Amino acid sequence: xxxxxxxxxxxxxxxxxxxxxxxxxxxxxxxxxxxxxxxxxxxxxxxxxxxxxxxxxxxxxxxxxxxxxxxxxxxxxxxxxxxxxxxxxxxxxxxxxxxxxxxxxxxxxxxxxxxxxxxxxxxxxxxxxxxxxxxxxxxxxxxxxxxxxxxxxxxxxxxxxxxxxxxxxxxxxxxxxxxxxxxxxxxxxxxxxxxxxxxxxxxxxxxxxxxxxxxxxxxxxxxxxxxxxxxxxxxxxxxxxxxxxxxxxxxxxxxxxxxxxxxxxxxxxxxxxxxxxxxxxxxxxxxxxxxxxxxxxxxxxxxxxxxxxxxxx
Length: 313
Fold this sequence. Notes:
Blueprint: E1 14-29, E2 32-41, E3 44-50, H1 55-60, E4 66-76, E5 79-89, H2 97-100, H3 108-120, H4 125-135, H5 138-146, H6 160-176, H7 184-193, E6 202-204, E7 208-210, H8 212-216, H9 219-231, H10 239-250, H11 265-290, E8 293-294, E9 306-307
Parallel strand pairs: 3-5
Antiparallel strand pairs: 1-2, 1-4, 2-3, 4-5, 6-7, 8-9
Helix pairs in contact: 3-6, 6-7, 6-11, 7-11, 9-10
C-alpha cells in the first residue's frame, strides 16, 4: 500500500504511512486508558486515537517522534480522526524529512534573492553593513533561510522566516511610496530582521516546537542581543542610530507581547505589516484546508471566517 499524505485522506480510508507525532496525551475512560494524538506531515495534520495502547504507546511514544502508522480514517466531532491499529517508531532511513515537515512554496534561491534584493536597496552604509554582517555569515544565513516563523499559527514551515521577513519588508516599502517622510532604510532593516531571533526560538526535527531559549528569552530579545553584538563591530554606527534600529525590533509586535510600544512612524508601519502578513498567511492556510463557506470557530481570531466560492461569482 502506498503511503498517503494527510491532505489526501478521506473518511473510511485505510492508512499505512509515516507521520510525525505532534501531540500525545494519555487519557482514561470507562474501559481503561487510551492515547489521544495529533499526527502531521508536510501536507497537514489529523487527529488520532489508540483505544488499546500497548507499553510502547503508554511509555515510549513521544511528541516529535516519527512513526509508522496503520489505521483507518473515521470521524469524531465532525472532523477526520485516524483510529490507529498498529504503530511503531520509524527508523531514519524509512522516511524523508521533506515528506514530514511542511516547506515554503518558494524555492530556497527565490527567498535568498528576495532578501538580498531588499538589502541592496539600503542606502545608509552603516545599516547596510549591519544587515550584511548576518548574510555574510554563511552558516547563519542558511539557518535564516530555512527556519520557520512559527509553531502553528503563521509561516509555520521550513523557510517561513525568510518568506515572511521578505514579505514584511516589501509590503512596508509599498506603503512608503505614499508617505515620503518614512525612512525606507529603517523599514527594510526592520522587515528583514524583526523576527531574526526565531532562528533560535524553534527547532524542527520531525515537528516544529519551541526551544528552551525560545520560551525563556523570546525571539525579540534574542534578536536585540545579536544586533547589538554585531553593531559593536561597526565603529561608524552612531549609538543614536543603533537605538532607533533596536526600537524597530523591540516594538514590532505593537501594544502587547513586546518590550516597548511603537514610537517611531516606521515602527508603526512594521507592526501593521507584520500583522497583515502573519494574519493573511494563517487565514489562507485555513481557506486552503476548508474551502468556500464558513470556517469553524477560529479561537486565535475570536471569530468565524467566510470564504467566497470564486466558481459561483
